[in-house]
From TrEMBL:
InterPro entries: Fungal_Metabolite_Diox (IPR051961), Phytyl_CoA_dOase-like (IPR008775)
UniProt keyword annotations, A-Z: Dioxygenase, Oxidoreductase
Keyword Oxidoreductase: yes
SUPFAM superfamilies per the UniProt record, alphabetical: Clavaminate synthase-like
Native source species: Trichoderma ghanense
Protein name according to UniProt: Kanamycin B dioxygenase
Region (Disordered): 15-47
GO molecular function: dioxygenase activity
């Protein structure tokens, strides 16, 4: 979802239309913030949430389609990731990790107009009506509206492809129809939150969202992984350098991986030479086989 998406641009100055026939209700303050779980130091050290925080995290994934787990990744070790907390509680034992990428919000070019993505869902195909995939995002810096944090439409993960303009393979795949945006905005407007560095964001793949302009002078990078339910028949595979193989095998042997990781192993030289030769955005097919 959050690799750079090649979609038709939508000008930020365009804004979002609202219904003229009825005034917008005043939402509660909580509607302007993403749901957050704050683990204790013991939970962070042990690598797992206690029962109460796990219940809270799972509830928000089902209710809102997204939850932020704060202070999970040590700032000094931001590249050494273990984002297995929570996802197996939602998807079932040993989810499949088959997508690993990053999303970069670039500073504007001189004289260019600020642009944004259309509001869209990454599930641009007929999909199950219950959770089947979670996007795991790790920001490498604190994300704010000032550097292009993603716009989120909480609670929209329970919609289907009838809300979308196009299906997978079309230019407008996953794009949400304007009528549904207006209707949803009157109930629960979108947010562009601040997410602290060191947090892990878990987002239902079906949730509406949009990449936003980065008006700062620094690139905003967010790592992106997808965990699929073990029963979900998506054939995607990772490609890793073979120097990582003993690392994953040792984590699995010690019971600390918690994931099924389908990998095509290549030499580390091949991995470094070709790692940028990947698709973008909706070129990926997250559907499952019949």
């Amino acid at each position: 979802m959050w690799a750079i998406r090649l979609r038709a641009p939508r000008l930020i100055s365009r804004g979002l239309a609202t219904t003229a026939s009825a005034p917008k209700p005043s939402p509660s303050p909580s509607l302007h913030r993403p749901p957050v779980v704050r683990p204790t130091s013991h939970e962070v050290t042990s690598g797992r949430l206690d029962e109460r925080n796990l219940e809270k995290a799972v509830r928000h994934v089902h209710q809102d389609g997204l939850v932020v787990i704060e202070n999970v990744v040590p700032h000094n070790d931001i590249d050494l990731l273990n984002a297995k907390m929570v996802t197996s509680a939602v998807l079932g034992p040993r989810p499949k990790w088959t997508f690993c990428s990053a999303n970069s919000a670039m500073p504007p070019l001189p004289g260019a107009s600020p642009q944004r993505q259309p509001v869209h869902s990454d599930a641009d195909f007929a999909h199950p009506s219950h959770p089947f995939a979670l996007v795991v995002n790790v920001p490498l810096v604190t994300m704010t509206p000032d550097n292009g944090s993603t716009e989120l439409w909480l609670g929209t993960h329970n919609t289907d492809i009838s809300y979308q303009e196009g299906t997978h393979g079309e230019r407008a795949s996953g794009r949400i129809k304007e009528k549904h945006l207006r209707d949803r905005e009157a109930v629960r407007p979108p947010i562009q939150p601040t997410v602290k560095k060191g947090s892990v964001v878990l987002r239902d793949l079906r949730l509406w969202h949009a990449g936003m302009p980065n008006p700062s002078d620094q690139v905003r990078i967010m790592l992106a992984m997808i965990h699929f339910a073990p029963w979900y028949r998506n054939p995607m595979r990772l490609q890793f350098g073979d120097d990582l193989k003993p690392v994953l095998e040792e984590l699995d042997r010690r019971g600390q991986l918690g994931l099924d990781v389908p990998v095509d192993w290549v030499s580390s030289e091949e991995a470094m030479r070709t790692y940028l030769n990947r698709g973008f955005g909706n070129s990926y097919d997250f559907n499952q086989t019949p």
